[in-house]
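Project standup — Tuesday

K.O.: blocked on the structure for the chain from last sprint. Re-posting the sequence here as requested.
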Amino acid sequence: MLSDTNTDASTHTPAGAIPRTQPYRSDKAFLSAVEPDYALINYTDARRLLKRGETADSWFPDRTQVITTTTVRDEELNLITWERELERVLEFEPDWHIPTDYSTYEDQNEEERITATLDCMEGLLWMQRQLREHGSETQIIPLVKGTTELERQACYNVFDEAGFDDLCAYYCTQYFTSGNGIQIDELVEDVRALAREQDRDIFLIGLLSANYLGRMPAQVTAAAGQNAWRKPIAPTTTEDEEIKRQWDEIVEEVEAALDSEPETDETAVIATEEA
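H.V.: unblocked you, prediction finished:
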């Protein structure tokens, strides 16, 4: 576990390709084989591991920094209280936690979205205080909410106030699961807006495709997803060396994409024409 307090910025914030994992035997085999620098797991899945007597230290490899996130399905998210979330985080002891998410949708009215965004920010500050008071070593990664700059600015103001200067997270899954097809152009546009509006590095949750990441602005320094490693890798039927080779290949592709020339309006047009 990291020795920094939860309010101090670490010199080793999550970066690069990060596998999103679940509490399954196959995921455990994958983690044991590749020993990634970082791994992401949903808060609700971490809770399932706790019920089986597992913690971040017992389930994940020693060298892996564990990130828990509350960016989960609405039917699960709506049942999570701050107090219960804190209790489970203290028990599971991840290295990093993305706290107190609230659902927001573009088709909500502005008042509802602003209320949900402010609730998320209030929860962020509450969780920061509680982890500090409990002496927890878990560090917080703040989550950007809002579909407009005005709504997101409320997040940036809180991040400034609370000292979250280095990294913020942005949830991408809804761009692929809304029922309107793959909305990658909309995602690129929104992430580029984040990069213009503030200067923190950006951690994308729900996107690990090197092809798509290559279109993102330079401030995107970390990305977590599951499909990109789950589809090509069969952990329970493949030798550890081959699993490691396949994962290393994904890591190299993602790192190359993150280091590539940031997309501009002109290159976006070219990419669309070549697709």
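K.O.: great, moving the ticket to review. Residues 16-274 form a domain with the TIM Barrel fold (CATH 3.20.20.105). Residues 67 and 201 are 16 Å apart (CA to CA).
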